[in-house]
Design a protein that fits this description.
Blueprint: H1 14-27, H2 40-47, H3 51-64, E1 67-70, E2 74-77, H4 90-94, H5 98-111, H6 116-135, E3 137-141, H7 146-160, E4 164-168, H8 169-178, E5 183-187, H9 191-198, E6 204-208, H10 214-221, E7 228-233, H11 236-250, E8 255-260, H12 264-273, E9 276-279, H13 281-294, E10 303-306, H14 313-322
């Protein structure tokens, strides 16, 4: 049992002597968390102090947050935890679990042997790297598929709300040597080539997945035999893939005609012959204009379908998270 001793002839006030001794008992875990402090009556008998003086000391201890009074039970040493930071923050109010995530990550680093300063450097280094990565987002594709790069840039700027720059794969090394920071985004088909250029420079590459085109595939499956389906896109690469997929689904049952945005001759042929035209968003207005131009010359205008985004929704969510955009 802890014994408290008061020196009556000391220059240090008796209440301060008792306060410091109880603080020491708590700090040294002689009074561990959950321990009930002696009653004012018992402590008065032990120390010879007036119970009012002891009550004052207990109130001071409560103000420190080390002890807490429980009505009708007594004064108990509080279990000290890190349930929250010392000040309120709007961020914590918005993300109430955020501080727990930080705590868990920090505790894991400390358990691995990191000091607090080392853990702080790790956190700051990661945050700084992500901020620099967010500062410049580059879409890269080979020259022969620049159309799909333009499509990606358009959709990413709309979805992310930040500027996105298109850089040809053949020029990526030069650009990154001039400004070796940022995030490179590319089609999964080109990720290996992009990583070979960017990774040695400490620039990350994030591959994107495309929309699954499930609705378009169902439309193609439902077309009568000998129908003509037209496909219009800004991307020559996308048209090649679409043609191959259509053939794998229907073989020679369908006639497939394609036109890249800007090729008015082929687009005119598509709108005059196709029963169904599938277009990406970048090309759709041009398709509508071409159909209106020949409406009086054809018996039945083609059915038009504008596809959804080229980039898959999950890829957009992933990219936002990686860039710290939510």
């Amino acid at each position: 049992m802890v014994q408290f001793h008061i020196q009556p002839d000391s220059e240090i006030p008796a209440s301060t002597q008792l306060f410091n001794q109880i603080m020491f008992a708590i700090a040294s875990r002689q009074f561990p968390p959950g321990h009930r402090l002696p009653s004012t009556r018992a402590l008065a008998m032990q120390t010879g102090l007036h119970r009012n003086t002891i009550s004052k000391v207990y109130r001071q201890l409560e103000e420190t947050g080390l002890v807490a009074a429980q009505a009708g039970s007594g004064i108990y040493v509080r279990a000290q935890s890190h349930s929250g930071p010392p000040i309120k923050s709007p961020i914590l109010e918005q993300y109430p679990q955020a501080y727990k995530v930080v705590q868990q990550s920090l505790n894991e680093l400390l358990n691995q042997g990191c000091s607090l300063n080392q853990a702080r450097e790790l956190f700051l280094a990661e945050i700084d790297w992500r901020l620099r990565s967010m500062a410049q987002v580059l879409v890269t594709v080979p020259t022969d598929d620049i159309g799909v790069g333009k499509l990606m840039v358009s959709e990413l700027e709309q979805s992310l709300g930040i500027p996105v720059q298109l850089v040809l794969m053949e020029e990526l090394s030069q650009i990154l040597n001039q400004t070796p920071f940022g995030t490179v985004v590319t089609h999964r088909w080109y990720v290996r080539e992009a990583e070979a250029i960017a990774t040695p420079l400490g620039v990350r590459v994030i591959p994107i997945d495309i929309y699954d085109y499930a609705q378009e595939i169902q439309m193609i499956k439902g077309l009568p035999k000998n129908s003509c389906v037209g496909m219009v896109s800004i991307s020559a690469g996308l048209l090649r893939v679409a043609e191959v997929i259509t053939h794998s689904l229907r073989g020679d049952e369908l006639r497939v005609m394609t036109a890249q945005l800007g090729d008015s001759y082929k687009l005119n042929a598509v709108v005059r012959n196709a029963q169904l035209i599938i277009s990406d968003q970048a090309s759709f207005s041009a398709v509508e204009t071409a159909v209106r131009a020949v409406r009086d010359e054809i018996i039945r205008p083609p059915r038009l379908f504008c596809g959804q985004n080229y980039i898959g929704t999950q890829s957009i969510h992933w990219l936002k998270r990686e860039l710290g955009l939510g």
